[in-house]
């Protein structure tokens, strides 16, 4: 697997609960290393690296500058899928949809994760 140019690592309240949520909507989780005490997980989507989740207290210990940062994020992440309509039909009952829109003829569905991160789903495209 090729590492991406930038790799998001999201602080979460409960790593297993987050992994369960992401697996429910089509991701696959892997341990990030060999240390069983480390709660970091890699998440793949359609066989490719997508992001990491790490329990907030361990992330704050790793980077003390984050000690007062709340869980969640200001901003959003986009998930490009191979078949927008099929994927959205599958996850709609599993997520909290906060907005549906269309930009330049492309549909986007936004939902929140249990930790308050916003993900926008759109059709995968070549640039």
Automatic annotation (TrEMBL):
InterPro entries: Glyas_Bleomycin-R_OHBP_Dase, Glyas_Fos-R_dOase_dom, VOC_core. Gene3D superfamilies: 2,3-Dihydroxybiphenyl 1,2-Dioxygenase, domain 1 (3.10.180.10). Residues 3-124 form the VOC domain. Signal peptide: none annotated. This is VOC domain-containing protein. It comes from Streptomyces lasiicapitis.
């Amino acid at each position: 697997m090729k590492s991406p140019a930038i790799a998001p690592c999201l602080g979460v309240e409960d790593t297993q609960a987050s992994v369960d949520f992401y697996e429910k909507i089509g991701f696959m989780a892997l341990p990030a290393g060999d240390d069983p005490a480390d709660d970091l997980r890699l998440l793949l989507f359609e066989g490719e690296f997508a992001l990491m989740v790490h329990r907030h207290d361990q992330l704050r210990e790793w980077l003390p500058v984050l000690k007062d940062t709340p869980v969640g994020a200001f901003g959003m992440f986009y998930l490009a899928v191979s078949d927008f309509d099929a994927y959205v039909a599958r996850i709609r009952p599993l997520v909290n949809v906060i907005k549906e829109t269309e930009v330049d003829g492309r549909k986007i569905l936004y939902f929140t994760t249990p930790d308050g991160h916003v993900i926008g789903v759109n059709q995968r495209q070549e640039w």
